[in-house]
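User: For my dataset I need records formatted as: sequence, then structure tokens, nothing else. Please produce one.
Assistant:
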Amino acid sequence: MLPVTVLLRRAYAAERIWAALTARSNGEGHRRIGVSLGVPAATVRGWLRRAAQRLEAMRALFLTVAVTAGVDVRIPDTFGCAWRDALAAVATATAAIRFRFGAAGLGGAVTPARVAAAASSGRLLAPGWPGLPDRGDATPVAPAAAHDDR
């Protein structure tokens, strides 16, 4: 079992990865984020690319977590930016869990990074999460039926 401080297949703590995702939602690029976090730019670029492929899935999952854990949860309005929408959903889930279990939670401080790690079972950036096919694993699409001009 992974602690909620790490993500599966990642060499950096969830808090550092979360800081990169947050910086990206504020418009920063992977190079600047890498410098500010002391992480190679290529590593940050990989995190951001993987996250970008699943922003809507992240938003949906964390709003579900918020509604499940919370009481009278207010679903945040959309910002028109998939990055901000996904991070707002995680913030909403974090607030709902804090309200229900307290700021210390059941296993330490309740932070957005820990909520993201716990709710995704550490798979937030892992291949195939949440049930998404990877590029090489995608189920082939059947070819379109031949057009018959009789």
